[in-house]
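Figure S7 source data.
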Amino acid sequence: MKIHFIGTSSAKTSLKRFHSSIVIKEKDFTLLLDAGEAITKALLHQYVYFNSINAILISHLHPDHSSGLPALITQMHLDKREEPLFIYSSINNIEKLKDLLYQSYLFQSRLSFQINFVAFEEGISFSVDEKISLMGKRNTHLDKYILNDVNKQLSFESTSFLITFANHKIHYTADIGGIDDLYLFKSELPTLLITEISHISFEDVLIVAQNPFPHKILLTHYSDEDKQNLDDFLQKLPEELDDKIVLAEDGLLLNLSS
Ligand SMILES: [Zn+2]
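Tokens for the predicted zinc ion complex:
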């Protein structure tokens, strides 16, 4: 299985890197994790063709993770896609994603392909491919907005994921609220942690890195301003953690054995 970093920037738009997004590829199956603003250009930059994507997973509804979805569906249609597309998100977000496409005039009856929306539930594992299964758990990223929702119409679902493939257990944080969210899948002993580094500190990452699990930590979702500080931290890492913590860049490709 390949993990391909399509974008590694935070919510801050950068001319050097695209918003955080990852492609997971196993043989003919391709899953896109998050589709923020400019995802179509980000994919083209990485030579990932729109209609090679079988499924899209949306972690939450912040624009740097979801607002590129209508543009991507439009490109798939313009490329005359015929294969069905699966869109996965939490049961609390899925109707809002349907509405986003509807409000963008992307009516199912006018599209060249079928979109299958699949809602997952908290803590329940589901398969996206023969060999890849996922489990989502709600994290605290959006809790700070609850008081703003005077009309009680928002979803506060921001999901972190455990991706299981062969002997690998990958904890993908998407966006989180703080260090406690790094332990959402603690009992599963994740082998790899892919974490955002905008809402936690490098010290938080160092604390997690002291444990035998995960074996490796990839940092993503950082601004251009943060990059210098992160590079400085990484240069001062103790030798035993030198290979364990890596700052991901757009285009980074990781191969996981099956
Ligand atoms: Zn974000």
